[in-house]
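Interim report, section 4.2 (structural modelling).
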Amino acid sequence: MPRLTTKKKILAAALKLFNGKNTQAATTNHIAAALGMSSGNLHYHFKNREAIVFALYEQMLSKTMLEHIDFPVTITQMHEHQLYLAKIYWEYRFFNRELLFLLSRDPELKARYIKENIGHKRHIRIVFEQLAANGYLDIPEDHVYTQLVDTVLLCNQFWHSHLETLGSEVDEANLAGGFGHIEEAMRPYLTAKALDELGTIKI
Amino acid sequence: MPRLTTKKKILAAALKLFNGKNTQAATTNHIAAALGMSSGNLHYHFKNREAIVFALYEQMLSKTMLEHIDFPVTITQMHEHQLYLAKIYWEYRFFNRELLFLLSRDPELKARYIKENIGHKRHIRIVFEQLAANGYLDIPEDHVYTQLVDTVLLCNQFWHSHLETLGSEVDEANLAGGFGHIEEAMRPYLTAKALDELGTIKI
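Predicted structure of the assembly:
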């Protein structure tokens, strides 16, 4: 097994603590203590908690950005992509749980997040356009693309918050419900080819 | 013109400050100063900022809860209800802008909000069922209700956040876009009767 670098060890320990309670309750001292490391050593690698949050965001991004992974081009690939994303969002669940708060604490993170999110929005539209071009979606009017893209953005980012505001337990299965919502939003526009291909998948 | 009670004056001044910048930047001292009032006098009416936030939430609730206003029973009434809500959400925009943060600061507010939100979810479903019973919606399967209800909850609560994460300006018109999203989500299920009635309305 490859040895984790100290940086990666710190990020893994921070991720665990952030996911467990809110990020403000997990100080850099707590993170250092969890690793049996001095605070000085931790601060040598990350100047503060914001820098750790930023690095974890970049980690999550590298796993989810459509630039870094293949665009889904069939309805089956789209479904598998959703299942994959559900796992990553669960792995980094502190981030969407505290999204707006974290952005408000770090202008640099906010600027970067918005830039990536605008790019992400463009990519999601391309995915839907490709699914339509490949005969999986029958999109009657252009604004339906806007509708579907906004649905994906709302669910990816705020399904966690949606569960919280209803007092629902935020576990992996409930979080994946956001992807069910996206697939339901697509349903009126699925073609016979898509329904046929999805026949064996529980959508 | 009726004289505002001191309590109402405080709430009006706080609302203006909260909407202008984030709630944490507007202290009770700032609110008192805006009214030319001593902090002592303000604290006689509200023990802290959380109490003011809570009272403003209750004000907003009294204007939006379907228990307090008539349920829309035609597609035109539904559309008018959305326009009305858009105005209220703009009036109290600090609340949805900082929703999750505010709930995390005050367990009492969080408990009350969740309770009301669960009730609200039930009422939204009743509205859709009535629209279907009145011939405006053709709902093919029961889970479409769940889909539409979740769409309303997502848009009502998180459209503001959605705009922020795209770096879009949060003004009254953009905020009302959330209601456009809801109406688009309903579109595949609108009956000929609904489309006919909506003919003269820009949906």
